[in-house]
Amino acid sequence: MTKRIAFLASDAKVAQTARDSLVKRYGNVAPRDADVVVALGGDGFMLHTLHNMQHLDTPVYGMNRGTIGFLMNEFHETDLMERLATAVEEVINPLAMLALDQSGKLHEALAINEVSLLRAGPQAARLKISVDGRVRMAELVCDGALLSTPAGSTAYNYSAHGPILPIGADVLALTAIAAFRPRRWRGALLPKNAKVRIDVLDADKRPVMADADSVSFPDIDWVEIRSEPSIQHRLLFDPGHGLEERLISEQFN
Q: What is the pLDDT at residue 244?
């Protein structure tokens, strides 16, 4: 059965050129009418596509036409239908963030990769970390902290020396960014259903911003973060090149 495909591309010229060629070869439908969405770009564009597609149950197959392609398959033009027929599906859940800023305004956001708190001034941030209502760290002095999903564990989390998480592990990675005190604290692995709250201490003197997949909110007092199982993102990968294999391979590079 021929699949109806919606081709989406980033603004990069190489992605737009690839989209034009693929549309000419395979046709194109609107995402709401598609059996599968093919996203052309890098990981950033894939995240953008998944966020925009979360109201649909349509799987997304990415082909790398950007600078980073951890969530993408290799680009080939001629064998797309065969690759879609044999693709392996991975289902991931985003993080839901609720944040209160110093003006008393609440902010909500979803993050497929991670939610991070980052210092927004010259001084290190002072954070208090609670898990499921219990204070686990009364004070973390650092440049920031982040909570990462398995899908996002090779992104900012990995750069901050956090662990790489297999997709099926049902855990989240809580990672410090340039921790000063406790100096050797490298973070924690938490159950996927854990509810994490991070309070900003001395928020007036040491301002902190919250970031959910590059959507930022300044002057934060606290954030609460949890996995959102009601939202499922369906990603398609070529056999042997799915997220599970990529996460394992990355640890041996």
A: 73
